[in-house]
């Protein structure tokens, strides 16, 4: 009789243990779909979008208002430098206002893009906070590196575009021949500079995407290294397509760092995934 009671207690403990383990497993794989309805998802998305819009608006208002004159003088720097360097061009580095509305439209456009740049950390953080509930604890630890690396690489791309822009202007104006005086309108000049900075900034996020693809096991470092020849050619073609000015200095300034980033991303991916079992790799 005592033996039967003991066996019953043991079986009861085993059942409770199994239930607790199953409960823990369910909690470990729990996703927002288990906790949030569609309406709650939409409400969360609206909240994130409102915060992003407010951050961009604050940055745009600051540039449009008190910092506009300093911003315009800063953006005029490459134009002024090439005019000083090429005295034969007889340009003074001042913008031409061709239409009454050009000044207001240019100021609004520049303020808007500057607001996006200044709000970039907030935008990336809100994006991460929206998707993070669907991730496991091991994946959430990449939040801060993801934000910092994305912001840093984007700003680095903008800086490279800023450095290479005078060379691009020289290259493009040089094709016009002798006896040409380059007098740019503010909207065309700043529009091209803005496009270049955005193109370089987005292109320089390329290694973040590669590292992410390795973390989710879509590609592996070994496979990336096996594709290096095709990757170098592909990067060169992509740089030629997305460079707004289409000039040789911009092409080189974009393609060379991206090719370096390709190998750096493969190395970082190897460091982050080297402890995985070989059977977990996508190319095994």
What is the first-to-last residue Cα distance? 56 Å
Helical residues, percent: over 70%
Main sheet record: none
- Estimate the global geometry from the Cα principal axes: flat
Order of helices and strands: HHHHHHHHHHHHHH
When the domains are counted, the total is 2
- Assembly context of the chains: single chain
Q: Detail the poorly predicted runs.
A: 22-34, 279-284
User: How many extended strands?
Assistant: 0
Rg over alpha carbons = 27 Å
Number of helices: 14
Mean pLDDT: 79
Could you tell me the strand content as a percent range? under 5%
Q: Structural class, judged by helices and strands?
A: mainly alpha
Tell me about this structure.
Helix 5 (77-85) runs parallel beside helix 9. The protein has 14 helices and no strands. It folds into 2 domains: 34-199, no CATH class; 205-284, no CATH class. The chain has 284 residues and is mainly alpha-helical.
Question: What can be said about this structure in brief?
Answer:
With 284 residues, the protein is an all-alpha fold. Helix content is 76%, strand content 0%.
């Amino acid at each position: 009789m005592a033996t039967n009671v003991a066996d019953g207690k043991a079986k009861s403990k085993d059942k409770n243990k199994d239930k607790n383990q199953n409960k823990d497993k369910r909690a470990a794989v729990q996703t927002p779909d288990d906790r949030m309805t569609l309406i709650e998802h939409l409400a969360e998305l609206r909240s994130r979008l409102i915060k992003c819009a407010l951050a961009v608006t604050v940055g745009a208002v600051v540039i449009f208002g008190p910092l506009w004159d300093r911003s315009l003088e800063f953006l005029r720097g490459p134009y002024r430098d090439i005019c000083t360097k090429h005295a034969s061009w007889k340009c003074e580095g001042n913008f031409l206002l061709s239409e009454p509305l050009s000044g207001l439209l240019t100021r609004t456009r520049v303020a808007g893009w500057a607001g996006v740049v200044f709000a970039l950390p907030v935008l990336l953080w809100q994006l991460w906070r929206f998707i993070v509930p669907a991730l496991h604890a091991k994946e959430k630890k990449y939040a801060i590196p993801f934000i910092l690396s994305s912001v840093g690489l984007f700003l680095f791309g903008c800086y490279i575009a800023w450095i290479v822009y005078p060379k691009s202007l020289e290259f493009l104006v040089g094709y016009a021949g002798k006896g040409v005086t380059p007098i740019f309108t503010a909207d065309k000049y700043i529009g091209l500079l803005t496009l270049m900075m955005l193109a370089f900034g987005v292109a320089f996020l390329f290694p973040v995407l590669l590292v992410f693809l390795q973390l989710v096991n879509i590609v592996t470092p070994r496979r990336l290294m096996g594709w290096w020849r095709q990757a170098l050619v592909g990067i060169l073609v992509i740089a030629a397509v997305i460079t707004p000015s289409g000039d040789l200095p911009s092409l080189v300034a974009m393609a060379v760092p991206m090719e370096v980033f390709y190998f750096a991303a493969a190395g970082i991916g190897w460091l982050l995934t080297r402890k995985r079992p070989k059977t977990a790799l996508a190319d095994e």
